[in-house]
Design goal:
homodimer; about 110 residues; mainly alpha; Arc Repressor Mutant, subunit A; two-stranded antiparallel sheet; 6 helices; elongated; disordered C terminus; DNA-binding
DNA sequence: CATCTATATTGCTAAATAGAGATATATCAA
DNA sequence: TTGATATATCTCTATTTAGCAATATAGATG
């Protein structure tokens, strides 16, 4: 099994490209053929196929078979891991520092809240 | 102002490297000097400095000044954006397939385009 | 079979990246 | 001032990446 950290490298690396994020956004509306994914971009078909390979390597899409089509569908599971990783930093952004300090003091004073 | 999409390229690109993720994890415990960040790795100081530049370019860390030290501290705000982006896909992983299908059917019943 | 369509693969180039060692700069301390 | 420490910058190399055009393959259809 691939180390979790390597998997994160692949997932975040895949998300680092705007074309690939746009492909995922498109796939959120349902599966698509490669040509359907090529259409909105001014990029060649081989280039999109390469992006799809990166997404597939990260586990973010999977491919089917339907005659000469290889429909692409979203597989969001790896995003759950990525979300969890980022979530560990939530306390650093969703409260101002003062509020965070107050919150921590409140925790210490009262015990476990929601 | 930098386009939001470019900012995401930088943030996800920064997170795609395990050394940089480890640096952020370390900074969650408080600010650190460059040498303190070098110590846990078998990487040279210039290499860590380069990673810090990438993190700074993504807005994920900021630098202070204290004598000859340039303390590095976490700036998690850009992670909020990244989290929001990923969050748009939450419904694809935090519900069972049956529930997802029900959700899609519900959308279709309400006339939401696919 | 011949051909058309969908997609993958190959081979290339240019640019970006991670890493190193050497050296420069800035500040402190004696 | 001299030297020590912290960090940045320069220059180089190897690897990876995004992109393209050309070509190969797989399946449908005339």
């Amino acid at each position: 099994m691939r180390a979790a950290s390597q998997q994160m490298d692949l997932v975040f690396g895949a998300l680092a490209d705007p074309t690939r994020r746009a492909i995922l956004a498109r796939l959120a509306d349902g599966e698509a053929t490669v040509n359907e994914l090529v259409a909105p971009f001014e990029l060649s078909q081989p280039t999109i196929s390469k992006h799809l390979k990166v997404l597939e390597g990260a586990g973010l899409v999977s491919r089917g078979r339907n005659a000469q089509f290889r429909p692409v569908r979203l597989n969001a599971k790896p995003l759950a891991e990525a979300s969890r990783w980022i979530g560990d930093y939530r306390r650093f952004w969703d409260e101002s520092l003062d509020q965070l300090e107050a919150y921590v003091k409140d925790l210490q004073a009262k015990g476990e809240p929601s």
